[in-house]
């Protein structure tokens, strides 16, 4: 699957989805009888949407090939395109004399954004399946030192065919190579992308000269600035006296967005407790009938700022399971900061089912109501696990622990400790409400599949 062909298909799908949302809204008479009767206003609003939405999808670079197929950035830009379309269309319609149609415009924006997000998800899955059977989406020629080459190769291997290295040039071993020679080698490697990772000894003007050499080619040019764990919204180019600097915004752990997050946590958890009250009572009854002990289990976990709290769970193990924990950890030979066993002998039959589908975590809604946890965040660990943390691992505690998070939707217990910490730190330092929303969407799939849960 070549990028240009996929992008052309994506443009067609976007236009069809926007048209479908308008057809549905018009067919159902959304916007009220006054809007339906006002032919000029109806035509004006529809025309504005048809024109503005594709423009905003293009302006926000929602089809940029580098963000397709992986990560939340594509969805974020699609969502923002719908928001900007609604705002601009409403303003222009009012300026041009349209007094009706606000309800229609809002309904189209919500429906169209939802359909666009769904279509992008379908297109992403289709692209992934095509990549499994065919060549990579991007063929990358890498210019970097030996250590950077290893790191970049590992990262590209994890993209599942989106990016595939087709050639390497050791910039340390060949310091006198010219930009033109690099471009020639990349072309001979049949690459469509050139990735340059500067070393500490690199000529600061070399990247610019390399960009000049690429002007007559169709190669895409990337510079790897050693900021792989910093999310794109935190990065911006800021020229200082002609010097293009990458500005990195520091993570914000307070402010209005945190207040909104708390309100979402509070009302969301109360709503879920009300809806799930009877199923949760039935689960508790089944646990009591199956084995000796209470239905609920509490354990001290470490939360925000390293403060301990009583974490609620449905009991999934036999009585006295905590007393066997250290013996099992020692017998397994595990020295990482988390203790997990694929076949833990302490887990009951009902416990296996509850763990597989994360049903044992639902009592933590009480912790969310009490403000000790959030619906989304790093998973809380027991104190004996936290005692084994490395220094940097404690940055997980800058955020409230969550019922679900990047760890849960990215492999759960199949991930090793280093991978889990990397995901948690990425979440903590790049948190946004959009990221929380996308994690919510991915949680249902992770839970229903049951993969990585034991």
What does this structure look like?
By secondary structure, this protein is of the alpha/beta class. It has helices at residues 3-27, 33-37, 39-59, 73-95, 102-133, 146-157, 179-188, 206-214, 256-275, 277-290, 325-332, 349-356, 365-369, 383-386, 406-409, 417-430, 433-449, and strands at residues 138-144, 163-170, 193-196, 220-223, 235-240, 243-248, 296-302, 308-314, 374-376, 381-382, 402-404. A four-stranded parallel β-sheet has the order 2-1-3-4, with helices on both faces. Strands 8-7-10 form a three-stranded antiparallel β-sheet. Strands 5-6 form a two-stranded antiparallel ribbon. It is globular and about 75 Å long.
Give a quick summary of the entry.
This protein is an alpha/beta fold and 454 residues long. The protein contains 17 helices and eleven strands.
CA gyration radius, whole angstroms = 26 Å
Task: Please estimate the helix content.
Answer: 40-55%
Beta-strand content: 5-15%
The number of helical runs is: 17
The low-confidence parts are: none
**Outline type:** globular
What is the total tally of β strands? 11
Q: Based on helices, strands and strand pairing, what is the structural class?
A: alpha/beta
> What is the N-to-C order of secondary-structure elements (H for helix, E for strand)?
HHHHHEHEHEHEEEHHEEHHHEEHEHHH
Integer average pLDDT:
82
| Main pleated sheet | 4 strands, parallel
Q: Kindly report how far apart the N and C termini lie.
A: 37 Å
Please list the strands of the largest sheet in the order they lie side by side.
Answer: 2-1-3-4
């Amino acid at each position: 699957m070549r990028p240009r062909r996929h992008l052309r298909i994506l443009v067609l799908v976007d236009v069809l989805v926007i048209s479908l949302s308008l057809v549905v809204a018009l067919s159902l008479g959304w916007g009220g009888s006054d809007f339906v009767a006002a032919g000029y206003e109806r035509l004006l609003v529809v025309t504005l949407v048809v024109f503005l939405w594709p423009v905003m999808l293009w302006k926000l670079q929602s089809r940029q090939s580098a963000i397709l197929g992986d990560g939340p950035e594509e969805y974020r830009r699609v969502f923002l395109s719908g928001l900007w379309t609604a705002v601009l269309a409403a303003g222009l319609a009012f300026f041009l004399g349209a007094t009706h149609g606000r309800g229609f415009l809002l309904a189209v924006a919500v429906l169209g954004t939802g359909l666009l997000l769904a279509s992008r998800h379908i297109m992403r899955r289709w692209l992934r399946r095509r990549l499994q059977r065919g060549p990579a989406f991007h063929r990358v020629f890498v210019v970097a030192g030996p250590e950077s080459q290893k790191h970049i190769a590992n990262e590209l291997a994890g993209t599942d065919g989106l990016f595939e290295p087709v050639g390497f040039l050791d910039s340390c071993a060949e310091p006198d190579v010219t930009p033109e020679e690099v471009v020639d080698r990349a072309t001979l490697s049949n690459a469509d992308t050139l990735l340059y990772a500067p070393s500490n000894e690199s000529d600061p003007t070399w990247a610019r000269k390399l960009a000049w050499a690429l002007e007559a080619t169709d190669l895409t040019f990337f510079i790897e600035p050693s900021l792989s764990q910093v999310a794109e919204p935190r990065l911006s180019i800021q020229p200082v006296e002609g010097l293009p600097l990458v500005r990195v915004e520091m993570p914000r752990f307070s402010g209005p967005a945190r207040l909104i997050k708390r309100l979402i946590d509070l009302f969301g958890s109360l709503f879920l407790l009300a809806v799930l009250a009877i199923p949760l009572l039935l689960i508790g009854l089944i646990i009591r009938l199956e084995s000796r002990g209470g239905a609920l289990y509490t354990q001290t976990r470490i939360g925000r700022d390293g403060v301990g709290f009583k974490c609620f769970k449905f009991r999934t193990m036999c009585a006295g399971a905590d007393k066997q924990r250290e013996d099992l950890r020692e017998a397994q030979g595990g020295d990482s900061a988390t203790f997990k066993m694929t076949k833990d002998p302490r887990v009951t039959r009902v416990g296996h089912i509850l763990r597989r589908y994360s049903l044992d975590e639902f009592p933590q809604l009480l912790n969310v109501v009490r403000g000790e946890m959030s619906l989304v965040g790093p998973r809380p660990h027991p104190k004996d696990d936290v005692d084994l943390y490395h220094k940097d691992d404690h940055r997980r505690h800058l955020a409230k622990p969550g019922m679900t998070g990047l760890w849960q939707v990215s492999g759960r217990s199949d991930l090793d400790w280093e991978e889990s910490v990397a995901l948690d730190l990425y979440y903590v330092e790049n948190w946004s409400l959009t990221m929380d929303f996308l994690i919510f969407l991915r949680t249902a799939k992770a839970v229903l599949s049951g993969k990585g849960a034991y």
